[in-house]
Specification:
Helix content: 25-40%
Low-confidence stretches: none
Largest sheet: 7 strands, mixed
Strand content: 15-25%
Strand order of the largest sheet: 4-10-9-8-7-5-6
Order of helices and strands: HEEEHHEHEHEHHEHEEEHHHEEHEEEH
């Protein structure tokens, strides 16, 4: 444990900490972080995808400098400012026609999803919301209230929340079985106690992130979209974690060929700065003035950074890079995983990749302790990655969109070494005693 990490433990509250190993950094560039011990750490998390262009990207840095050197205020609460208008116009140009109405700007995916949950109920007069088991839509009280992740069991849920299963092809045996198992309960949602006209919206993740990086079967979300259209339910797509080029397409929902009513952006939108956005139809988005606001919403510095991120994704072909490097990584990991006894499944799209660890490949029992030890050992070897999943047994890889082939190879090599060391019993469980993780 380094000096910086010790100092933090004596000065910073742990209420906002989700720790897996004693990581303490003082800088970073590109796909690498620099620890306070001088080590270079290859970053396969990108701060859970928030540092979408990597660290200290020139485009973001220059945009922030320009905006701050001639500052257009600090908010859009009581004044229009140019950067927030430019960002809103850009976002409207990127979403499907169905959601091309107005844009709300916030600080994070959490406050964005909370705003949507409140907004759809208020604007439609419908008192229920559908969401998936395993879903994590944020860390504020309102966003946790519409989430289905088991880590949030003790949190008070929205009174009208209905949770249905998300398809898990690995657990079910194949995509067809997974789709059927998830759609069947949906058909039984409506009863004497729950009527279609009571449901305001269905919150979806096109790929379920914290629930285990689950990739839905082909055609699954087309059925969800049909269900929503049939019953007049708004389709809300949470693109916070896997949107904006992360999956090898600009939007993760494009893989399913659907058109959401409302799109939620966050994390990578700011390239490391706090900003989120909700894009949706004008009648919903303009429900009421001062309905959801904080003083620094629409901050021109953050808006400028976000605009630079969107422009850089286009200019530098990062959608294609994500698709190409992601496909390369999936193929390499899948091939090498045959020699890694702990690996049960490798899945993902683009640079959103999950590696599920199991005790054995027959029972597929979650290897929770081994997963925690693997990310710890990888950190010792110079790689930053974390784990997710309802059973805390899925290594999550969300590296910067600028990742190169050589960096991908470096990270995969470290993952392999870490898995082998853990399987051989070379990593002591005592190391993770202070790190609860998920």
């Amino acid at each position: 444990m380094t000096d910086l990490y010790r100092r933090e433990s004596k000065s910073v509250s742990n209420m906002a900490q989700l720790r897996f190993f004693p990581q303490a950094v003082v800088g970073g560039k590109g796909s690498y972080l620099r620890g306070d011990d001088g080590r270079q750490l290859l970053d396969f998390s990108a701060s859970w995808g928030a540092a979408s262009l990597g660290h200290a990207h020139p485009s973001v840095r220059e945009a922030i400098t320009r905006a701050f050197s001639d500052q257009a205020g600090a908010s859009y609460l009581s004044s229009a400012n140019e950067p927030s208008v430019l960002l809103a116009e850009k976002l409207l140009s990127l979403v499907p026609p169905r959601s091309r109405g107005r844009v709300w700007l916030g600080h994070s995916g959490s406050d964005a999803n909370e705003t949507v949950a409140r907004m759809v109920v208020a604007a439609t007069g419908r008192r229920r919301i559908l969401a998936f088991k395993g879903a994590y839509h944020g860390g504020t009280s309102g966003s946790m209230a519409v989430s289905g992740h088991p880590a949030l069991k003790g949190v008070e849920k929205f009174g009208g929340l209905i949770l249905v299963p998300y398809p898990n092809s690995y657990a079910a045996g194949d995509p067809t079985a997974a789709s059927a198992a998830a759609l069947s309960p949906l058909e039984e949602v409506f009863s004497a106690d729950v009527r279609p006209e009571e449901v305001a919206a269905f919150f979806i993740e096109p790929i379920q992130g914290d629930g285990g990086l689950l990739v839905p079967p082909v055609g699954f979300f087309a059925e969800i979209e049909r269900f929503c259209r049939q019953h007049g339910i708004l389709l809300v797509c949470d693109e916070v974690k896997f949107g904006l080029a992360r999956t090898g397409l600009l939007h993760a929902f494009e893989h399913s060929g659907i058109e959401p009513d409302i799109v939620v952006f966050g994390k990578g939108l700011g390239g490391g700065l706090p900003i989120s956005a909700v894009v949706g139809p004008e009648p919903i988005m303009n429900h009421s003035p001062t309905f959801s606001y904080q003083t620094l919403h629409g901050n021109p510095i953050c808006a400028s950074a976000a605009l630079a991120v969107l422009e850089t994704i286009e200019k530098d072909g990062l959608v294609r890079n994500s698709a190409d490097i992601g496909s390369y990584m999936l193929a390499s990991l899948s091939k090498r995983s045959r020699d890694w006894d702990l690996v049960g499944d490798v899945r993902g799209k683009g640079l959103a990749i999950g590696i599920e660890l199991v005790g054995d490949r027959v029972s597929r029992a979650p290897a929770k302790i081994q997963t925690a030890l693997t990310v710890y050992r990888a950190f010792q070897l110079g790689l930053v990655m974390y784990y997710v999943g309802s059973n805390s047994n899925v290594l999550e890889l969300t590296p910067p969109l600028i990742l190169s082939t050589s960096e991908a190879d470096e990270g995969i090599s470290i993952i392999g070494q870490a898995l082998q060391d853990v399987a051989a019993g070379k990593v002591s469980p005592d190391l993770i005693s202070s790190f609860a993780g998920w």
